[in-house]
Amino acid sequence: MIVRRAVLSFLYRHDTSLTSAAQIARLLGHDRATVSAALETLESTGLIERSRGSQGVRLHRISVPEDPLQYSCFIELMKLDKKREGRLLLLKHLPRGSMRPLIRTRGLRLA
Fold first, then answer.
1. Which of 31, 54, 59, 75 is most buried, judging by how many CB atoms fall within 10 Å of its CB?
2. Which pTM does this prediction carry?
3. Do the beta carbons of residue 95 and residue 46 sit within 8 Å?
4. Domain boundaries, position 86
């Protein structure tokens, strides 16, 4: 859940992005497989749209919900995610699951 929120927030802040899952993973500090799974889930729920892959990259963009209630919830989530206090609040209330970011120490990636 945390990774999906991070990926959704990343794509929301960067509008339309021509990237690969590996590039997004590197920028967010998560592993590629977890980010790929998050992208799949976000696409299947209709929150993002992705082009077909070409040479490992895809065009990613937010697909804003058409339902007014879902749209307002989406906007409130993105507003919360803009500030550190909001992100901490989301982390406190969202289920953690087994997915966690990789810890970076002096250029080393520890699982």
1. 31
2. 0.70
3. no
4. 2-110
